[in-house]
Amino acid sequence: MIEETTITRAIVERYAEKFLKGTRSDVCVVGGGPSGLVCARYLAEKGLSVSLFEKKMSLGGGIWGGGMSFNKVVVQKASLDILEDFGVGYEPYDGVHYVVDAVELASGLIYAASKAGVLIFNLCEVQDVMIRDEGVTGLVVNWTMVGMTGLHVDPVAVGCRAVVDATGHEAVVCDIVAKKTGKLELKGEKYMWAERAEDGVEKLTSEVFPGLFVAGMSVAAVYGLPRMGPIFGGMLLSGRRAAELVAEALGRTP
Ligand SMILES: Cc1cc2nc3c(=O)[nH]c(=O)nc-3n(C[C@H](O)[C@H](O)[C@H](O)COP(=O)(O)OP(=O)(O)OC[C@H]3O[C@@H](n4cnc5c(N)ncnc54)[C@H](O)[C@@H]3O)c2cc1C
């Protein structure tokens, strides 16, 4: 017989189990946009334990709205193998540009990351980092609702061996590290120049502080790259590159 308090117990017990697992992960990915989801999935497939924190209710970041809320996005050829890997369809536009349905892309990336075993914590906002001599060793997180309501509630800490800042334009984790250590500089994203930005965002995906990697638009924020508008290939490629770099740093062969 269906019973209400059993429903409550099932939710709380299973969520608590998941959260406890997430208190010590190999990698914490911050931000569930395209770069974070791709990075998290590839890391989980390499056998690493991965927790992903997303402050909003739904994942997908800037994908859903496409360009100016027309829910189609564009990718370039170099990223097509990632779409195929995630089972996301695309159609050629002119041999250079390919069009992808934004809803299929967002849901495909979320589904694949979840199926790969990434522990996903939505409605969890990253507010700070833990730093020791060796570098970043964890995150300080709280329910997004606490920040929204201005309640005076302390956050809690989760540990990991590497953090990926995939928070998009704001580069939230890098910004915190820059302000609190003075050992990282954010140059800030520049004017639009899609080709240069798409190329740079993959190439400059890197470890920017011991234990802290950047992926996606956060790369542009740290390195002062141009913006690129609603072309998403660079986000996917940067996510995959970040996964390769983190895996290498943690001793997993790519
Ligand atoms: C206002 C606006 C302007 C845009 N301008 C451009 C542009 O100029 N050029 C361009 O290429 N694209 C732009 N985009 C499109 C799009 O955001 C990006 O190209 C693409 O989605 C970036 O992918 P990403 O993975 O780097 O980050 P995003 O898709 O931005 O995902 C980042 C995720 O991190 C989450 N997050 C942020 N802070 C925290 C935190 N503290 N804790 C937990 N989660 C957090 C966010 O909620 C979000 O889901 C814009 C989008 C918006 C909304």
Task: Write up this protein.
This protein has helices spanning about 5-20, 35-45, 80-85, 100-115, 145-150, 170-180, 195-205, 215-225, 235-250; strands at about 25-30, 50-55, 70-75, 90, 95-100, 120, 125-130, 135-145, 155-165, 190, 205-210, 210-215, 225. Strands 1, 2, 6, 7, 8, 9, 11 and 12 form an eight-stranded mixed beta sheet that branches. Strands 3-5-4 form a three-stranded antiparallel beta sheet. A two-stranded parallel ribbon has the order 10-13. The protein has nine helices and 13 strands. The model has no long low-confidence stretch (mean pLDDT about 95). The radius of gyration is 18 Å and the shape is globular. The protein is an alpha/beta fold and about 250 residues long. α2 (about 35-45) packs parallel to α9 (about 235-250). The chain has one domain (about 25-50, about 60-250): FAD/NAD(P)-binding domain (3-Layer(bba) Sandwich). Bound molecules: flavin-adenine dinucleotide. Flavin-adenine dinucleotide binds near residues 62, 218, 227 and 230.
